[in-house]
Design brief:
- This protein is an alpha/beta fold and 176 residues long.
- Helix content is 34%, strand content 21%.
- The chain is built from five helices and seven strands.
- The chain has a seven-stranded mixed β-sheet with strand order 3-2-1-4-5-7-6, with helices on one face.
- Strand 1, helix 3 and strand 2 form a beta-alpha-beta unit.
- The N and C termini lie far apart (55 Å).
- It has one domain: Rossmann fold (3-Layer(aba) Sandwich), CATH 3.40.50.
């Protein structure tokens, strides 16, 4: 037992020193009307797999699973947002079609995605872009909110005028 204590303490020290994932965007919820337009623009179909990178409170995941009957997966780093999203998935009875991965969006596998939803800042999109370029299969639709992906040319861009919240929105659809 005495020999295990130093090993255990070394493991704890290594975890404490391990780099923490970088927060790539502040929590800024997308209005539900914009969520619906993002999913419509992506032409999300029943049974397709959608990933929401930085899923926040899960609103894109909930709508994708409920209204579009998609297999919806959110990736979120914030503990509280993950917990509340998971609780709402259970409350809405969506455990078969919706889930939240508690993790870093830069370390996930998106190769099974049919659609990827993104609302990240430009610097964060630069970090995500090479991962998507490497992993996404041909034909995957990527819908970005407000900030385009540098180096990619959108297939379609939609500007949504101010809907009473004080600002307009831009959605960009990319097809890989």
């Amino acid at each position: 037992m005495k020999k295990l204590i130093p090993v255990f303490l070394a493991a704890v020290a290594a975890l404490a020193q391990a780099p923490k994932p970088e927060v790539l965007a502040p929590y800024f919820p997308t209005p539900l009307t914009i969520v619906e337009q993002m999913l419509d623009l992506a032409k999300l179909k029943p049974g397709e797999k959608i990933f929401d990178l930085g899923s926040g409170d899960g609103r894109i995941i909930f709508m994708a699973a409920q209204r579009f009957r998609a297999d919806a997966i959110g990736v979120e780093l914030d503990n509280d947002l993950v917990s509340s999203s998971q609780a709402k998935i259970r409350q809405l009875g969506l455990t078969q079609t919706a889930r939240i991965i508690h993790g870093d969006i830069l370390t996930q596998d998106y190769s099974s995605a049919d659609v990827v939803a993104i609302y990240l800042l430009p610097d964060s999109l630069l970090k995500v872009r090479p991962i998507l370029e490497k992993q996404l299969k041909k034909g995957t639709r990527v819908v970005a909110h407000d900030f385009g992906i540098a180096g990619w040319v959108p297939t379609k861009t939609v500007t949504i005028p101010d809907d009473g919240e004080g600002r307009s929105h831009t959605l960009m659809l990319y097809i890989r």
